Fold this sequence. Notes:
The complex is a heterodimer.
Chain A: E1 13-24, E2 27-39, E3 44-48, H1 55-62, E4 70-77, E5 80-81, H2 87-97, E6 98-101, H3 105-108, H4 115-124, H5 130-143, H6 149-152, H7 162-174, E7 180-184, H8 192-209, E8 212-217, H9 220-226, E9 229-234, E10 237-243, H10 244-250, H11 254-261, H12 302-306, H13 326-331
Parallel strand pairs in A: 3-8, 3-9, 6-7, 7-8
Antiparallel strand pairs in A: 1-2, 1-4, 4-5, 9-10
Chain B: E1 6-18, E2 25-38, E3 43-47, H1 54-62, E4 69-74, E5 77-78, H2 84-91, E6 94-97, H3 111-121, H4 128-141, H5 158-170, E7 176-180, H6 188-205, E8 208-213, H7 216-222, E9 225-230, E10 233-239, H8 240-245, H9 250-258, H10 264-280, H11 292-297
Parallel strand pairs in B: 3-8, 3-9, 6-7, 7-8
Antiparallel strand pairs in B: 1-2, 1-4, 4-5, 9-10
Amino acid sequence: MTGRDDMDAGPLLDIRDLTLSFRTGGGLVRALNGVNLTVGHRERVGIVGESGSGKSVTAQAVLGLVPAAEVTGEIRFAGENLLAVPQERMRQVRGKEIGYIFQDPLSALDPVRSIGDQISETLRIRGVRKAEAMRRSIDLLGRVGVKNAKERARDYPHQFSGGMRQRVMIAMALVAEPRLVIADEPTTALDVRVQAQVLDLLLELAEERGLSVLFITHDLGVLSGFAERVVVMYAGRAMEQCVTDELFYGSINPYTLGLLESLPRIDGEVPRRLTTIGGQPPSPAHPPSGCPFHPRCRYAIDVCAARVPTLLTPPNGSHPSACHRAQWLAEQPGVLR
Amino acid sequence: MTEPILEVTGLTKEFPIGGGFGRRKETLVAVDDVSFSVLPGEVLGLVGESGSGKSTTARCVMRLIEPTRGTVRFAGEDLLALRGPRMRRVRRGMQMVFQDPYSSLDPRMKVEDIIAEGMVIHHVRSGAAARRARVRELLELVGLRPDHLTRRPANFSGGERQRIGIARALALDPRLLICDEPVASLDVSIQAQILNLFKDLQQELGLSIVYIAHDLATVRHLCDRIAVMRDGRIQEIGDRDQIYGAPRSEYTKELIEAVPIPDPIRQREKQERGAALRRAAKAGPPAEVPTPAVAKAARP
């Protein structure tokens, strides 16, 4: 698997100007507003955002799983625009070329079929003989840390604990040897010690198999150890995009800065009060004018209410931020701490 | 010495499991000989993983379910020995805030009525005018606006709903709040607002709080003292600085070490340490949470 060709130039996944709207009782509602995002070969990219930011919708759009009323832009996977391919082709891409792991393994697994049956299905529907498909599934089940894999393959989902179920989901996502794995909050439902083990496993497998990973989470702590590059989303837009360390030590976006400041910490001084971002995230049905974050932003100036900022690298900055004050922020030494 | 407002001794809750279809009847001990106390104005954290018994402990303290054994003394009274109206009058002094601000508010009621309901039931501040004045006061206290009064829960975000739930809990002037994962379903930026509100309330009103959570970072921010639970038992109980700085039990150490931190360089080091430890312990079984299926089944 490691000998896979990375010949095609450019990133493995390249999302360009993706907009997406849902039809609701009150008309069309924009969930994504021109998202640009890339995942390179063997790269782990994290999307972080709060509920309603569009992080999950972005992932589902890549998999062609959103019943959207209107989609524009491009989702290029290995050069192919997934928004333009027929359903038939999309079914091949899902599972075979792009694997996915969801938050809640219990609702993603069929309760009345054995684990081995479910893992090997992805292979069988692609023409692998039953015995061979089962053999490969059992191997992988062992690899993801399920003991006595051969016997356990005959068990049903309810016979596994939460952490073990998530390992089964990982095996399902990887069995067809995809190049890209999309993981949507894969550890959110797990207890903290199990979360650490599952993250560790994902990291190991990604390196061992040369996988690209698009990792979606609301947890900046989880992201900090897993992702090489990060995209921060807010109100259906990418607000900041950079390598992980730059985000945590040198953000030039007020929303990111606000998020980092509002986190309670496990060590260091305990502040009397947490710094908060005032107000609420905007409703997608009634977005504010200009920058979607300006009503809550302490650095907002007149232009912020008037014009939507583009995701650009400011002249003296190191990475792109969708903020009219990005250049000013880049000039401030240690805005955060 | 200050008298504790809440004193729990030897609290035990057993649930029958199995039975039927010829299977043997067994008992699950969800809470196993738990003792702790809370001083006036103190915030006590109850932390643990799922199935550790922290929520069941809270329910027993509130007498929402009957404990199997043990005593609960609240404001000097033996709560478990009381019956009927007298029990309800004493219990009024402790109120609960729930995790899910969506399912814990009646969608058909106006905010005003949700907050006032307890006062009506307990005949506190009889007279509509007095009640309305108190509701307005509470609304301001939790950071909502007077024009919110006539709206229904559906018009509010998760954070605002949690504020409504808190106002409702405060309506009967409790001395103790029991909060079960009150920020677990909120977004990061909203979570910080609610944590600050709890701190303000605790300081302004001199409230005692039992704060139940699985998230060790919010617990550290809010709590003076922390009890770490596992499999229905308290593993250790201590001051915040002791628990986080010098945990005595191996389990507490493991929990704290496993929390991912928003600091990539240190988080990568942490993961390296953890992975190395797990590789070394590969011979043994992974430290899975024991039998969550059983723990789930036991939830009433």
